[in-house]
Amino acid sequence: MALLQISEPGQAPDPHQRRTAVGIDLGTTHSLVASVRNGVAECLPDAQGRVLLPSVVRYLTDAAGATSRQIGFEALEAQLQDPQNTIASVKRLMGRGLRDIASRAQLPYELIDKPGMVAVKTVAGEKSPVEISAEILATLRYRAEDTFDDDVFGAVITVPAYFDDAQRQATKDAAQLAGINVLRLINEPTAAAIAYGLDNASEGVYAIYDLGGGTFDISILRLSQGVFEVVATGGDSALGGDDYDRALVDWVLVKAGLAADTLTAGDKAALLQAARGCKESLSATDSVAFSARLSRATVQFDMKAADFEAVTAGLTQRTLAAVRKCLRDAHLGKDEVQGVVLVGGSTRMPQVRRAVASFFGREALTNLNPDEVVALGAAISANQLAGNSSGADLLLLDVIPLSLGIETMGGLVERIVPRNQTIPTAMAQDFTTYQDGQTALALHVVQGERDLVADCRSLARFELRGIPPMVAGAARIRVTFTVDADGLLNVSAKEQGSGVEARIDVKPSYGLSDEEIARMLQDSFSTAQQDMQARALAEARVDADRMLLATRSALAADADLLTTEEATDIDRLMAALAAVREGGDAALIEAAVKALAHGTENFAAGRMNRGIRLALAGKNIATV
Ligand code: ADP
Ligand code: MG
Description:
Helix 12 packs antiparallel against helix 13 (586-599). The longest helix is centred in the C-terminal third of the chain and has 31 residues, at 528-558. This protein is of the alpha+beta class. The protein has 14 helices and 28 strands. Strands 1, 2, 3, 4, 11 and 12 form a six-stranded mixed β-sheet that branches. Strands 15-14-13-18 form a four-stranded mixed β-sheet, with helices on both faces. The protein has a four-stranded antiparallel β-sheet with strand order 21-20-24-25. A hairpin with a 5-residue loop joins strand 26 and strand 27 (489-495). The chain folds into four domains: 21-240 and 314-398, Nucleotidyltransferase, domain 5 (2-Layer Sandwich), CATH 3.30.420; 241-313, Actin, Chain A, domain 4; 400-526, Sandwich (Substrate Binding Domain Of DNAk, Chain A, domain 1); 529-616, Substrate Binding Domain Of Dnak, Chain:A, Domain 2 (Up-down Bundle). Magnesium ion is lined by residues 27, 212, 344, 374.
């Protein structure tokens, strides 16, 4: 839809007026910022011409106690000399509690357990992963503003497809702290696919193979009607280019006859640095000189690409095993994949390219720089969202990985937003009260595919208070789930008659790992039958409780209407219902509910008559 532009009288509209929008790849190892200029997406270099910014932040204090920080290359260089205050790979900490961080033992800096998200202890005080990431984001924002001599209107920031609500929220918070208006968070594999223009390609399944510095991610996307759906994600969060460096160092040590325990920390760092340089050169040439100066010796010899390939073949194979597993999760054969995209600096290695091509039986797309492709795709989508692109309004949609719903009576889940619903979305459902005179409603928001709350993940709880007292079932409470373009959830509940309302932003403190999501989905497929039975039973129990409660309160008020036999009859029916309610047979419970309903029909009629008589007592017809 085009908006009509109206200019001030006497002033020509500026045809070149555009809003500076950028795409940011906030990576574990490197981060980049890109933008669309003259219709072409490109990564923006720093003053030294480098597009990659190492995702490393160092905190310092001077003698007077003033604190400062170094970001990027400067921090990277200082890493060895000041490991406790130099934070690398902060992305692994985003939105995570201490228990969620598998690699915490290997981290050179100290983590502090905090409710919700860990913090890092530094000389400049405790730093939240959100603050540390904000330093990186702000650096990229300034780079863009210097390049364009203009404020950045907004940014699209990429996150791994498996990032959950907590990790996405933390990323958004970091952007806000860096003064960046987030146009949208999009998934890294989706961004890579966009960079290759696959959103205009033929519909079907695409695989995005992303081997970075410390992580390997494989994502299967399905394109339909210009929209990418993440079908499955997998990978290994402890496998990346760094492992190739380490494998090379181990091999060099054996060749040079050096024992690892005789090396100083400086020696190890020098070897790793040499290995990395050697590895990167071998992506372009067949042989290169390996050279590292250690404290007691200098290691030097010619390294052949074939040797490097042989010592790292096991690592490459491990990535393929993860790809195979991901395809299995997606119930897809590799011949059903119609395009493969390579992402991440480590996919520059020719042996990786060959292995991927032979696995899929097709050449992968590689004509864009693999370490830039995510940022480029983010820039393209930022440009569209800022309204700069002249082309058709391409919809950039993502989907919800797990269903969202609320707990209803009996510990059951009522799903409100189904899994794979494209976002942004808003969906509502009406609920009612359970007891007469109930003035508050407890809402429990859950995520998952199972029918029982106990099998799903609890996201948030809140209460709606101030409902006017009414008989059970008379209140109409509309519960609305709104998921914004970044996948963040807001739930509101409104009593329609009185207008009382309560709402909550769901910011879960702990995230789900991709394994957990996969497991929860798997569970839901394999237990659908069991869930149906459990649901029937839980529903029957809710009916039973409601019936027992209503009968008890009726007896408390109007037992004098009953003859002794009638009262015994009702007692007997109630006891029978209470007994089967504890059993596991939904049909028996339903039968007992019916029997009690039937056995109390006369009593109910009698109560109704008395109610009418009381209501009319002392009033004449005109005032009724
Ligand atoms: P991340 O997504 O984790 O931030 P990147 O995509 O920037 O990481 O990848 C960084 C990794 O890519 C490092 O291990 C680096 O050594 C490796 N890499 C970069 N260039 C090359 C190259 N030419 N050959 C082999 N590996 C490379
Ligand atoms: Mg990356």
